[in-house]
Amino acid sequence: MQVETIFRALADPTRLRIMRLLGTMELAVGELAQVLGQSQPRVSRHIGILCDAGLAVRRREGSWVFLRSASPEDAGHVLSEDVLILLQRAEANDALFAAQCQDDRRKLSAVRSSRQQNAQDYFARHAGEWDELRSLHSPDKLVEDALTQLLSSYPLGRVLDIGTGTGRMAELFAERADHIVALDRSLDMLRVARAKLQDLPTHKVELVQGDFTDLPFMDDSFDTILLHQVLHFAQEPERALSEASRVARNGAHIAIVDFEAHEHEELREKHAHARLGFSDEQAEELLSAAGFESVNSKALDGGELTVKIWIGRRLASVPNHKTKENTA
Fold this sequence. Notes:
alpha/beta; Arc Repressor Mutant, subunit A; 2 domains; 7-stranded mixed β-sheet; 45% helix
């Protein structure tokens, strides 16, 4: 009986503390062990019980394992949101539990600070090359304002931010979206994004490691898909857009932010660009082949490279798409 399993899972003070912490943010097993003052093997056993009860979800990211509270979209999810509300009320009415939770949150601040420091260290190592590239194109603020305006008339719903990088797009659209999945192949970039997004509500943003040519999501999962300065890294951009189309719902919108076709060959070596931007004709052909109709575009001059935004809408009938059954 699943309800009985849930209450057994909660019949331990450490697991109550873990669930209370997961109501605040997603945490790695090592981070939980640090806050709880317990060994990782012991914390892992508690985590296994919570996951078996459908209250929490594990996700591997390289050699790290992250844990978050289960959501209604997770298979086997039962009562996790109700449990979080119950624990919030318990803290308000139980002085001893409240004192323990407050102490846990004080230790959690050290985890937040460590994430931010690691992000700053990563930026410091790469600041020069990023500043060099930024100097070639329109200011980020101008691009963000234009993208926000182009998407302003569409309900964002569930958003997939492919190649989230620093997490800026997820941060920019979190308030308007129902839920954002921020995906990146790089573990380093995911850690940078996690530091940027860690103060957002846990139900708003989910970080996932994955490749844009093999998205770890079921078909018809998202209402809006963002590819912000990502597509020029694709050896086969048509494959990346085909995958984006597969996980997009009928009528979903896709926003591609990238460079207009250019001749800066040095970007291949310096920044691993596989494509030197895209012409309007190329972008529209790629969108059409993936089952999107082009609905809007905007060019942003302001440097040696012109940034272009293309907006597409997924058509109702898209043939020859491979179905994927597993979820992230």
